[in-house]
Amino acid sequence: xxxxxxxxxxxxxxxxxxxxxxxxxxxxxxxxxxxxxxxxxxxxxxxxxxxxxxxxxxxxxxxxxxxxxxxxxxxxxxxxxxxxxxxxxxxxxxxxxxxxxxxxxxxxxxxxxxxxxxxxxxxxxxxxxxxxxxxxxxxxxxxxxxxxxxxxxxxxxxxxxxxxxxxxxxxxxxxxxxxxxxxxxxxxxxxxxxxxxxxxxxxxxxxxxxxxxxxxxxxxxxxxxxxxxxxxxx
Length: 234
Known about the structure:
Blueprint: H1 3-11, E1 22-24, E2 38-44, E3 50-56, E4 61-68, E5 74-82, E6 88-95, E7 98-106, E8 112-118, E9 124-129, E10 146-147, H2 153-160, E11 172-180, E12 186-193, H3 197-208, E13 213-214, E14 216-218, E15 221-223, E16 225-233
């Protein structure tokens, strides 16, 4: 290996987990690599802070944020979350590990889905929400889409939804509408009926992160189909 090749190798971003990588399950609990859904590491940034890099276990970028090195690592600054396809999913700002200010939520096709403002008391206010343009998308077709996850849909959501630190007594359900597109991807997620801001935000995240489905068929052609699912918090 000549000097130029060695230099390019050292400068190139890693394509797989490094030795100091942390591995996480679907609820972001630290696990060993064989049980991981995500992995992450940090790199130095300015003024003693770090850049936090999260990845899906298959190598696609999941999140990048500014923060403070740990343990534990704390997000503190701008953050961007991504779909597996690489498309931007969520952008916003953290302050000492908490959501702050305006956060924008995007569909995988690049259209803005929703804006929320996080207040100082960690509640949220809707700044803007897309019109329900998907109301004309059918909920019933000749051959319905089929979820291809390793578990039935309800169980998969139960396993991958992260419980917020504080859930109202007795728990509740968040009803999320989404569309399974002709390619089987999840788009146009939005809250139909919520019950707690933190749970609402987590339900949106969990549904938007669902893996690809087998698309529905109408007259033999792949077609978009609309669903509403409950996400349960106990």
